[in-house]
Amino acid sequence: MANQDLMDKGKKVEKNDSNLQGTFTGVLFIGAFIALVWFSMFYVFISRQ
Amino acid sequence: MKGDDTAMKIDMPRLEKIWLWIGGAMIVMFLAIIGYMGISMGLHPPGQMRTIAPEAVDTTAPFNTPGLVPLGNNEYRATVVSRVWTFQPNTMTIPVGATVHFEVTSPDVVHGLYIPGTNVNIMALPGRITEYTYTFKKPGEYLVLCHEYCGTGHQNMMGKVTVQ
Fold first, then answer.
1. Which of A24, B26, B80, B128 is the most exposed place for a label (fewest CB within 10 A)?
2. Is B13 within 8 Å of A42 when comparing Cβ atoms?
3. Interchain contact, A24 vs B18, CB within 8 Å
């Protein structure tokens, strides 16, 4: 019974993961944008040093 | 209890774990780069450790004689009084490659001393002496601006550094 519960939860996780694909892509885009802006600002600061 | 722990681990979606790790790693990376560069290059924000009585700025050395003082070895100390609505001194001329140690204060309200195109970005606070060191490597005329709104004449508060 417990094993069945775990298997059910495992299925639920798989379902969540497939639902989160778009969110994951969006998060990566935002992360890449933040990193790009950060390194741009850092470059400006260092080049003026 | 053990069962609860297992359930918690399973309930966390794998992709969510991944993006949390990526976000955490980015923060650690940014802080590590800033920390390493700060220590290896001596980078730090303008210091404001020294204090001065605002009403005594005009009678306290070195601010009673603001100006540019050569220290030798192409180094200068720029003692600047920011007041409504001018900088004293208003113009400075230095050779290319000169390292200038700014020390700035204000006898009245909060001002700023900003030189566009450089990292010179100093707050001039009454009661505090702000220090910052910068090396002018490129020749040219540099504008000096007050970047902190200080009253009706704020837009006229500007000076010039000539590097030749």
1. B26
2. no
3. yes
Could you tell me which chain B residue has the CA closest to the CA of A14? B13
ipTM reported for the complex, 2 dp: 0.70
Question: Residue A22: enclosing H or E segment and its boundaries?
Answer: helix A21-47
| Other beta carbons less than 10 A from residue B94's beta carbon | 20
> Is A42's CB within 8 Å of B23's CB?
no
pTM of the full structure: 0.74
CB-CB under 8 Å, B19 with A27: yes
Nearest to B138 by CA among B105, B116, B155: B116
**pLDDT one-digit tens code per residue, B23-76:** 999 999 999 999 998 888 877 777 778 889 999 898 988 999 999 999 988 999
CA dist B97 and B5 (Å) reads: 63
The set of residues, in sequence order, having a beta carbon less than 8 Å from that of B136 and lying 6+ positions away, is: B94, B96, B97, B98, B100, B118, B142, B161, B163
- Mapped onto helix, strand or coil, the DSSP state of residue A39 is helix
H/E element holding A43? helix A21-47
Give the closest-approach CA distance of A31 to chain B in angstroms. Answer: 7
